[in-house]
Design goal:
Blueprint lengths: L6 E6 L3 E6 L2 E6 L2 H13 L7 E5 L2 E5 L4 E2 L11 H15 L11 H17 L5 H11 L9 E3 L8 E4 L2 E5 L6 E3 L1 H9 L6 H8 L5 H21 L10 H7 L1
Antiparallel strand pairs: 1-2, 2-3, 3-5, 4-5, 6-8, 7-10, 8-9
Helix pairs in contact: 2-6, 3-4, 3-7, 4-7, 5-7, 7-8
Length: about 250
């Protein structure tokens, strides 16, 4: 029985679940189009991604990445400035790669979603109206035409793995698409603004800090209802509500 491993629930909600068994991650998704995107995006990405061991819908089996996550939302990141700079360099390499063949969200779609989510937050007394409106004004700066890049689309800090000062891989590519490069940079530094300078140092030029701050507000406003409905807490220290209050 030496080879028997415990099953660890990494994340689980109504749409998806990820389990870890030893050095294997099992991703279970009710929507196979998301898995199709993940598999194709990992094949196209010019940066390290998990090895696909097998796929048997609705399950995708991936090998564990070496190293540890760059950090966790709501917790201080212990990664070095050099590791953050390496993350920036990896993201830049992704953004300069040939575009994936499928489009991402349009500005009009995002604007309509922002309208809906702000109205829901105020109508249901989830957040004070003045906090929502202040962040909405900040968020609207992100709603402008952009030159599309190959974006990860959900580059939260727990999806970037490092060992020492080197990037070992990036997880969870189901939201990858043509998109705004500043969104990836904002996603990785959401709740970790103190590491933005190190990330930008590795990424290089063409970084608009005001747009990153706009995406912090936009991502947080868009995400709070989803988090609540899927059993997560956006009011955790350093989480989305704290991000909105800090803006």
């Amino acid at each position: 029985m030496a080879d028997v491993h415990e099953v660890e629930v990494v994340v689980a909600h109504h749409e998806r679940a990820t389990l870890r068994v030893g050095d294997v991650y099992l991703k279970i998704d009710t929507d196979q189009t998301r898995t199709d995107v993940e598999v194709e995006a990992m094949a196209l990405a010019p940066i390290p991604t998990p090895e696909i061991l097998w796929r048997e819908p609705p399950v995708l089996a991936l090998a564990a990445l070496p190293g540890t996550a760059l950090g966790r939302l709501g917790e201080p990141s212990t990664a070095s400035p050099a590791a953050w700079a390496a993350a920036g360099a990896a993201i830049r390499k992704l953004h300069e790669a040939p575009l994936p063949p499928w489009p991402g969200r349009s500005v009009d779609d995002l604007a309509a979603e922002l309208d809906r989510e702000c109205a829901w937050l105020i109508t249901n007394d989830v957040l004070p109206a003045d906090l929502v409106e202040r962040n909405r004004r900040i968020a609207e700066a992100a709603l402008r035409p952009w030159t599309p890049s190959f974006t990860h689309g959900d580059l939260q800090i727990a999806h970037m793995f490092v060992a020492g000062d080197e990037v070992t891989g990036v997880l969870d590519w189901s939201e990858a698409a043509q998109g705004d490069a500043m969104y990836d940079l904002a996603s990785l530094t959401l709740g970790h603004a103190e590491h933005l300078d190190d990330l930008v140092a590795g990424y290089g030029t063409d970084v608009d800090l005001d747009l990153i701050r706009a995406w912090w507000s936009l991502r947080s406003l868009r995400g709070i209802r989803w988090l609540i409905e899927h059993g997560f807490d956006p009011t955790m220290p350093g989480g989305e509500v704290d991000v909105l209050k800090s803006q």
